[in-house]
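Whiteboard transcription, Tuesday session. T.W. wrote the C-alpha cells on the left side:
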C-alpha cells in the first residue's frame, strides 16, 4: 500500500465548500479518504460535494462561529462514520484590509476572533478528544490542521485583527503538536500566500494590487486552490507520522523574496 493511500480515513474540512478548503478536500478525496465538508452555505456545500468522487463523502451545515453548531456537526459526523482521523480547521473570514487599526471597533475584533480563532480551536478540540480516546483503545492516529496565513508572519497593515487570529493559531498548533504526539496525533498549520479564491476575488481584480504584488512572487503567479491538494494528502498520510508542529508556508516564494 502506498504511503499516501488514505483509504479508510475520515477527514473533516471546515470551509471545504470553496477556495483552499475545497482544494484540500479534493486532494484528500483523490487519495481515497472520505471527506466531510462543513460550511454554512448550503448551495456551495452541495456544489462542492459534486466535485468529490467518493460516494461516502458528505457536505454538512456548520457555522463555526457558533459553538453549538460545531458540536452538533461533529457528533453527527462521528455518528455517521464511527471515527474522525483528520480535522482541517480551514473556515475563516477576511478582514479585507479595510480601515485603520485606530478605528477598529470591539465588534470587529470579536467577529473576527469568533470565526477564525474560536471556531478553529473548538473544532479541533472536539476532534482531539475523540482522537485521544481512540488512541487509549489502541488506535493511535490523528491529524489536526489549521489554515493560517502569510499575514501571521508579515506586517498586515489594516488587517491586524485577521493576522492576530492566524498568529494565535500558529502558537496553538505548536502547543498541540507537543501535547498530543504521544497519542499518535500530529498538528500543523498551512500558511497560504496570495491565493485566488472567492475571498480574494475583488482584490485580485485590481490592476494596482496586481502590479504591486506580482513582482514580489518568484513563481510569478497567484496561488490556486489546487496548489493545496498535495500538502493535505501528505499531512494525512502515514508518510508524515514523524513530522509535527510544522508551519507549511505555501506562497510561491513571496516571504523570502
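and on the right, the sequence the group agreed on:
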Amino acid at each position: 500500500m502506498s504511503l499516501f493511500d488514505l483509504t479508510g480515513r475520515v477527514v473533516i474540512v471546515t470551509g471545504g465548500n470553496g477556495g483552499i478548503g475545497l482544494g484540500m478536500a479534493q486532494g484528500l478525496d483523490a487519495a481515497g479518504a472520505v471527506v466531510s465538508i462543513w460550511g454554512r452555505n448550503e448551495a456551495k456545500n452541495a456544489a462542492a460535494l459534486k466535485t468529490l468522487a467518493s460516494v461516502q463523502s458528505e457536505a454538512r451545515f456548520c457555522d463555526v462561529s457558533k459553538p453549538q453548531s460545531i458540536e452538533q456537526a461533529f457528533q453527527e459526523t462521528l455518528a455517521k462514520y464511527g471515527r474522525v482521523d483528520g480535522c482541517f480547521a480551514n473556515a475563516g473570514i477576511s478582514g479585507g484590509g479595510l480601515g485603520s487599526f485606530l478605528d477598529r471597533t470591539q465588534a470587529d475584533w470579536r467577529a473576527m476572533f469568533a470565526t477564525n480563532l474560536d471556531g478553529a480551536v473548538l473544532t479541533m478540540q472536539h476532534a482531539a478528544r475523540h482522537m485521544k480516546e481512540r488512541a487509549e483503545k489502541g488506535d493511535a492516529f490523528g491529524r489536526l490542521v489549521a489554515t493560517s496565513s502569510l499575514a501571521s508572519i508579515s506586517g498586515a497593515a489594516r488587517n491586524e485583527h485577521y493576522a492576530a487570529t492566524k498568529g494565535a493559531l500558529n502558537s496553538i498548533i505548536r502547543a498541540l503538536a507537543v501535547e498530543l504526539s504521544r497519542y499518535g496525533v500530529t498538528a500543523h498549520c498551512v500558511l497560504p500566500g496570495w491565493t485566488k479564491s472567492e475571498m480574494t476575488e475583488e482584490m485580485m481584480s485590481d490592476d494596482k494590487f496586481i502590479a504591486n504584488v506580482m513582482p514580489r512572487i518568484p513563481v510569478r503567479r497567484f496561488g490556486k486552490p489546487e496548489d493545496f491538494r498535495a500538502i493535505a494528502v501528505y499531512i494525512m498520510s502515514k508518510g508524515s507520522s514523524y513530522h509535527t508542529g510544522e508551519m507549511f508556508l505555501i506562497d510561491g516564494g513571496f516571504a523570502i523574496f
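Someone added at the bottom: Residues 10-256 form a domain with the Rossmann fold fold (CATH 3.40.50.720).
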